[in-house]
From TrEMBL:
Top-level lineage group: Eukaryota
InterPro entries per UniProt: TM_pro_TauE-like
Name of one Pfam family that matches: TauE
Name of protein: Uncharacterized protein
GO biological process: protein ubiquitination
Cell compartment(s), UniProt: Membrane
Organism phylogeny: Eukaryota, Haptista, Haptophyta, Prymnesiophyceae, Isochrysidales
Membrane association type: Multi-pass membrane protein
Protein backbone atom coordinates (compact mmCIF):
# COMPACT_ATOMS: atom_id res chain seq x y z
CA UNK A 1 0.00 0.00 0.00
CA UNK A 2 2.79 2.43 0.87
CA UNK A 3 4.70 1.58 -2.28
CA UNK A 4 1.58 2.01 -4.41
CA UNK A 5 0.70 5.36 -2.84
CA UNK A 6 4.29 6.55 -3.23
CA UNK A 7 4.30 5.50 -6.89
CA UNK A 8 1.04 7.39 -7.48
CA UNK A 9 2.55 10.52 -5.98
CA UNK A 10 5.58 10.23 -8.24
CA UNK A 11 3.34 9.80 -11.31
CA UNK A 12 1.44 12.96 -10.37
CA UNK A 13 4.69 14.90 -9.92
CA UNK A 14 3.99 15.35 -6.23
CA UNK A 15 6.39 17.95 -4.80
CA UNK A 16 8.22 15.89 -2.18
CA UNK A 17 9.86 17.75 0.67
CA UNK A 18 13.29 16.83 1.98
CA UNK A 19 11.68 15.49 5.15
CA UNK A 20 9.19 13.22 3.32
CA UNK A 21 9.87 9.54 3.69
CA UNK A 22 10.31 7.85 0.33
CA UNK A 23 8.55 4.49 0.60
CA UNK A 24 10.47 2.56 -1.99
CA UNK A 25 10.31 -1.26 -2.02
CA UNK A 26 13.64 -1.34 -0.19
CA UNK A 27 12.54 1.21 2.44
CA UNK A 28 9.35 -0.73 3.21
CA UNK A 29 11.49 -3.70 4.18
CA UNK A 30 14.48 -2.00 5.80
CA UNK A 31 12.81 0.56 8.11
CA UNK A 32 10.11 -1.69 9.62
CA UNK A 33 12.69 -4.45 10.13
CA UNK A 34 15.01 -2.08 11.95
CA UNK A 35 12.09 -0.77 14.04
CA UNK A 36 11.05 -4.29 15.06
CA UNK A 37 14.65 -5.16 15.95
CA UNK A 38 15.00 -1.92 17.91
CA UNK A 39 11.78 -2.68 19.78
CA UNK A 40 12.93 -6.19 20.64
CA UNK A 41 16.33 -5.02 21.83
CA UNK A 42 14.75 -2.19 23.80
CA UNK A 43 12.35 -4.64 25.43
CA UNK A 44 15.11 -7.10 26.29
CA UNK A 45 17.27 -4.45 27.92
CA UNK A 46 14.43 -2.57 29.59
CA UNK A 47 14.79 0.72 27.77
CA UNK A 48 12.02 2.53 25.96
CA UNK A 49 11.69 1.88 22.25
CA UNK A 50 11.13 5.59 21.68
CA UNK A 51 14.67 6.27 22.80
CA UNK A 52 15.98 3.94 20.12
CA UNK A 53 13.51 4.89 17.42
CA UNK A 54 13.94 8.67 17.80
CA UNK A 55 17.39 8.70 16.21
CA UNK A 56 16.20 6.10 13.71
CA UNK A 57 13.42 8.41 12.55
CA UNK A 58 15.95 11.21 12.16
CA UNK A 59 18.01 8.88 9.99
CA UNK A 60 14.90 8.17 7.91
CA UNK A 61 14.76 11.88 7.13
CA UNK A 62 11.96 13.00 9.44
CA UNK A 63 12.03 16.51 10.81
CA UNK A 64 13.45 16.64 14.35
CA UNK A 65 10.21 18.02 15.80
CA UNK A 66 8.18 15.18 14.28
CA UNK A 67 10.70 12.57 15.40
CA UNK A 68 10.76 13.94 18.93
CA UNK A 69 6.98 14.09 19.21
CA UNK A 70 6.57 10.58 17.82
CA UNK A 71 9.17 9.22 20.25
CA UNK A 72 7.42 10.90 23.16
CA UNK A 73 4.10 9.43 22.02
CA UNK A 74 5.61 5.93 21.93
CA UNK A 75 7.18 6.41 25.36
CA UNK A 76 3.79 7.49 26.75
CA UNK A 77 2.25 4.13 25.85
CA UNK A 78 5.26 2.15 27.04
CA UNK A 79 5.24 3.93 30.38
CA UNK A 80 1.48 3.67 30.80
CA UNK A 81 1.56 -0.05 30.08
CA UNK A 82 4.39 -0.63 32.54
CA UNK A 83 2.63 1.40 35.24
CA UNK A 84 -0.58 -0.54 34.65
CA UNK A 85 1.26 -3.85 35.01
CA UNK A 86 2.89 -2.74 38.25
CA UNK A 87 -0.49 -1.58 39.54
CA UNK A 88 -2.24 -4.85 38.64
CA UNK A 89 0.43 -6.93 40.37
CA UNK A 90 0.40 -4.69 43.44
CA UNK A 91 3.99 -3.58 42.97
CA UNK A 92 3.22 0.10 42.43
CA UNK A 93 3.54 2.36 45.42
CA UNK A 94 0.82 4.88 44.69
CA UNK A 95 2.42 7.78 46.57
CA UNK A 96 5.75 7.17 44.91
CA UNK A 97 4.04 6.84 41.53
CA UNK A 98 2.11 10.06 42.07
CA UNK A 99 5.27 11.95 43.01
CA UNK A 100 7.12 10.59 39.97
CA UNK A 101 4.16 11.52 37.75
CA UNK A 102 4.17 15.11 39.02
CA UNK A 103 7.96 15.38 38.69
CA UNK A 104 7.86 13.90 35.18
CA UNK A 105 5.00 16.13 34.11
CA UNK A 106 6.69 19.28 35.45
CA UNK A 107 9.99 18.26 33.85
CA UNK A 108 8.22 17.75 30.54
CA UNK A 109 6.55 21.15 30.69
CA UNK A 110 9.79 22.93 31.62
CA UNK A 111 11.75 21.02 28.97
CA UNK A 112 9.17 21.76 26.29
CA UNK A 113 9.14 25.44 27.17
CA UNK A 114 12.94 25.55 27.16
CA UNK A 115 13.28 23.84 23.80
CA UNK A 116 10.50 26.00 22.32
CA UNK A 117 12.31 29.11 23.54
CA UNK A 118 15.59 27.94 22.01
CA UNK A 119 13.88 27.08 18.73
CA UNK A 120 12.30 30.52 18.53
CA UNK A 121 15.50 32.27 19.55
CA UNK A 122 17.85 30.49 17.18
CA UNK A 123 15.40 29.20 14.58
CA UNK A 124 17.26 25.92 14.18
CA UNK A 125 15.73 22.45 14.30
CA UNK A 126 19.13 21.02 15.19
CA UNK A 127 18.48 22.03 18.82
CA UNK A 128 16.08 19.08 19.08
CA UNK A 129 18.69 16.69 17.71
CA UNK A 130 21.26 18.00 20.18
CA UNK A 131 18.83 17.63 23.09
CA UNK A 132 17.99 14.05 22.06
CA UNK A 133 21.70 13.22 21.77
CA UNK A 134 22.48 14.72 25.18
CA UNK A 135 19.62 12.84 26.86
CA UNK A 136 20.60 9.53 25.27
CA UNK A 137 24.28 10.08 26.10
CA UNK A 138 23.51 11.01 29.70
CA UNK A 139 21.22 7.98 30.03
CA UNK A 140 23.97 5.69 28.76
CA UNK A 141 26.48 7.14 31.19
CA UNK A 142 24.09 6.82 34.11
CA UNK A 143 23.14 3.24 33.20
CA UNK A 144 26.83 2.35 33.10
CA UNK A 145 27.49 4.10 36.40
CA UNK A 146 24.56 2.42 38.16
CA UNK A 147 25.53 -0.98 36.74
CA UNK A 148 29.12 -0.54 37.87
CA UNK A 149 28.01 0.60 41.32
CA UNK A 150 25.66 -2.38 41.70
CA UNK A 151 28.39 -4.74 40.51
CA UNK A 152 30.89 -3.39 43.04
CA UNK A 153 28.30 -3.53 45.83
CA UNK A 154 27.57 -7.15 44.91
CA UNK A 155 31.25 -8.06 45.03
CA UNK A 156 31.65 -6.39 48.43
CA UNK A 157 28.61 -8.26 49.73
CA UNK A 158 30.06 -11.55 48.49
CA UNK A 159 27.28 -12.14 45.96
CA UNK A 160 27.84 -14.37 42.96
CA UNK A 161 28.39 -12.15 39.91
CA UNK A 162 28.38 -14.83 37.21
CA UNK A 163 25.63 -16.26 35.05
CA UNK A 164 22.75 -18.18 36.56
CA UNK A 165 20.78 -21.00 34.99
CA UNK A 166 17.92 -19.74 32.82
CA UNK A 167 15.30 -22.07 34.28
CA UNK A 168 16.43 -22.07 37.90
Amino acid sequence: MLIHRHAQRELCSYPFFDCDIRWTPRATIIWPTICVAAGLVAGMFGIGGGIVKGPLMLEMGMQPAVSSATSAYMILFTSATAATQYFIFGALRLRYGAVMFVVGFCGTVVGQMGVSYLLKRWGRQSIIVIVIAVVIGFSCLMMGAVGTFDFIQGIRAGEYQGFHALCA
